[in-house]
Design a protein that fits this description.
The protein has helices at residues 2-19, 113-118, 290-293, 300-305; strands at residues 43-44, 54-62, 68-75, 81-85, 91-97, 103-105, 126-127, 133-135, 138-141, 144-147, 159-161, 174-180, 183-192, 203-211, 216-225, 229-230, 234-235, 238-239, 253-256, 258-262, 275-276, 288-289, 309-314, 324-330, 336-342, 346-350, 373-378, 393-394, 400-410. It is mainly beta. It has a single domain, classed as Beta-galactosidase, Chain A, domain 5. Residues 1-39 have low confidence and may be disordered. It binds beta-D-glucopyranose (BGC). Residues 121-122, 132, 268, 309, 348, 350, 354, 374, 376 line the site of beta-D-glucopyranose.
């Protein structure tokens, strides 16, 4: 069964992505940042002669503390264009060509920092120090109990979500854009002080976004703590291949290279079990439309999540630092297609069950329930409290290092 499934996933990769060629299209110019009295000059960075790729830097906005947030536009030689900001390393806009070569912004986000500072469900953000939930905000290392302030309570049960109320998604990171020929990117760095959001140890972190001419967005995470501490970094970009604020993602076809998942309780905390997906609405080992089974009556797991909001355990996870395929996503209407490859052992599939029309997107249109989905590569939620999950504890001086790629194309 394992082998057949492995072959299926691989087959899909070769058939679907291998055949997808990046259309030769010009992506539309990203929307202008709102007018501010402090308009900064647009800077083209290290433009490479004869390259279609470029990186430009400009003022994005001020945050509520009056700090300046900068935007970096990564224009890929293959047609993908992304606007990212140094506030939380957020991907504000992501232009993906469709099967006819027409580009559309396919990620959820806001045009200003105020949106991110108020109702933001982590749109496009780097997540740290700990992706997903830690039960009750508590864990013990070497007999010492650490108490993290809780910032989330599904089912009325408090927990620490995504590194706490002032997690790494709210930090202004140092950012250095770069261009090497047709490859462009930004290196984000920050220092998280000892005790940040209740976590032990100072952590030096570096997250590198690279956009390749093959339309691959590579994310490399590095972090070095000076005390024993849990680290679990991810990216919370939301996709909608119909375009942002253009309906739901229920007709997207998803494949997850995962034959098991970690069931949760009413607080969306893993119970500690690792159960097979076969015969359940969680079986995405072959492609299924997300809407097909999301509202299956009587499924306790779907009831707890109000839909999919679960960690899936990869069947053939990365070995020796090689990337392994975790997922594929396809929208037949636009032809947009994506694969997710990672060194992580798990992936959180969240189908936007907490999105509401109170969140107004970049086109001024409200977002819908299930108007976007996230595929967050990660270690499993609540690992510091789950002895049978792969550990997320990093030793002092040890280099935490993971890589994830979102590979975009069409078919
Ligand atoms: C979690 C959801 C949460 C969302 C935040 C996801 O990673 O699994 O439960 O609501 O992030 O918007």
């Amino acid at each position: 069964m394992k082998n057949i499934y492995g072959a299926l996933c691989c087959g899909l990769a070769l058939l679907a992505f291998g055949c997808a060629t990046a259309p030769e299209s010009e992506a539309p110019a990203p929307a202008e940042a709102p007018e501010t009295p402090e308009v900064q000059e647009v800077q083209e960075v290290q433009a490479a002669p004869n390259s279609k790729a470029s990186v430009t830097t400009k003022f994005f906005a001020k945050n509520k503390l009056g700090q300046t947030v900068m935007q970096y536009t990564l224009k890929g030689a293959g047609g993908v264009v992304m606007d990212v900001i140094n506030y939380g390393g957020k991907v504000v806009r992501l232009y993906l060509p469709d099967k006819n070569g027409e580009s559309k912004d396919c990620t959820l986000g806001f045009n200003d920092v105020a949106g991110y500072e108020t109702v933001d469900p982590y749109f496009g953000s780097i997540i740290g120090r700990y992706g997903n939930r830690i039960a009750n905000g508590l864990f013990v290392i070497d007999g010492v109990t650490y108490r993290l302030p809780t910032n989330n309570e599904p089912g009325g049960i408090p927990c620490c979500l995504h590194g706490g109320a002032a997690g790494w998604d709210t930090k202004i990171w140092d950012a250095v854009p770069f261009q090497n020929g047709d490859t462009v990117g930004v290196v984000f760095t920050t220092t998280s002080p000892d005790g940040d959001q209740g976590f032990p140890g100072k952590v030096e972190a570096k997250v590198t976004y690279t956009l390749t001419p093959e339309n691959v967005w590579r994310i490399e995470y590095e972090a070095v703590p000076d005390k024993k501490t849990p680290i679990n970094l991810t990216q919370h970009v939301y996709f909608n291949f119909n375009g942002e604020a253009e309906g739901t993602i229920l007709d997207h076809e998803l494949t997850l290279c995962a034959d098991k998942m970690t069931p949760v309780d009413a607080g969306l905390i893993p119970t500690g079990e690792i159960t097979p997906v076969a015969g359940t609405p969680f079986d995405f080992t072959t492609p299924h439309k997300i809407g097909e089974r999301v509202d299956t009556k009587g499924d306790k797991q779907l009831e707890y999540g109000n839909g999919y909001d679960h960690n899936f355990v990869l069947t053939n996870p990365s070995q020796n630092g090689e990337l392994a395929q975790a997922a594929a996503l396809y929208d037949a209407k636009s032809g947009r297609y994506m694969e997710v490859w990672t060194t992580e052992p798990g992936i959180q599939f969240y189908c936007g069950n907490f999105l509401t029309d109170k969140m107004v997107g970049k086109q001024g249109k409200p977002y819908q329930f299930r108007g976007g989905l996230a595929l967050e590569t990660q270690h499993y939620p609540d690992s510091p409290n789950q002895p049978n999950f792969p550990t997320t504890i990093v030793q002092p001086g040890q280099v935490y290092k993971t890589t994830t790629e979102y590979r975009f194309g069409t078919k």
